């Protein structure tokens, strides 16, 4: 992201708070990644768990640039928390719906429920106390908070497996949402479109940071590891593996930075915002395939074990690239844009202002 003194200061603070020996987190990875209450409370005390919530609503009043630093640093430190779900998504939906949370520091997740009452693979559901449910019906959208008691009475929660062990669960509502704010069709459609973009960009930031960390670990390992009398990095085949991974990670990072800068400038309401998010997600998705494969090959057998920290970055990246739209979804979106509005896509490629609005991206 665009370097500023404030953001670099923020990065240093976050590295102090989130830092530590990554290799000490093997037990956490083996047991499944749960909710770290102590770390959440520390981040809350510093104002990071409600980073983009307006100050008058009890938050820190920051924007996308600061949020990207927070999400990137937490992913690079393998300190996984519902930072995006709670602040960027759930609390934002509540504000748009006119429902202001009592305490923005309470961890929340967001579940977009279909007319049949189902939401699939909701992040952190079952591991944190509150879910913001947004149920679609007849074009309108009903939004409310479900605390543990209401959730137990009105819904069934079924955990689903993930590559990384990060908590996910399916939600099945057994009753209507209580005391819901109902948004009419036009407002509901705009909210859902922006929700997809917000979630997709947040996941792109996290995955790109994880890929960068995996590449750094490849460089460190192949430089230090000696085989047949010389470092692995001296073998041409290994050099190609690491170089390809580094190139893909750099492309992913550049595309994500472009999308974050646009989000900071336009609030994801710009004429090219959806296309830039789609490009970032496409690049990140394809880069993940290359980086994960090459990183584990470069590390050899040790890189596939629970004892090695590489999986703390590669496995979450595999999960994140499939959330808020898959790589194929975003590739298809770009293809449709190229077919119907080729000039708009070219403007994004060369960095020129787009001339017309981007079509709806709701999934």
Automatic annotation (TrEMBL):
Keyword Oxidoreductase attributed: yes
Pfam families per record: Acyl-CoA_dh_1, Acyl-CoA_dh_N
Cofactor(s) annotated in UniProt: FAD
Protein name: Acyl-CoA dehydrogenase family protein
Family: Belongs to the acyl-CoA dehydrogenase family.
Organism in which the protein naturally occurs: Saccharopolyspora griseoalba
Domain Acyl-CoA dehydrogenase/oxidase C-terminal stretches: 200-314
Residue ranges annotated for the Acyl-CoA dehydrogenase/oxidase N-terminal domain, each copy included: 6-90
Keywords: FAD, Flavoprotein, Oxidoreductase
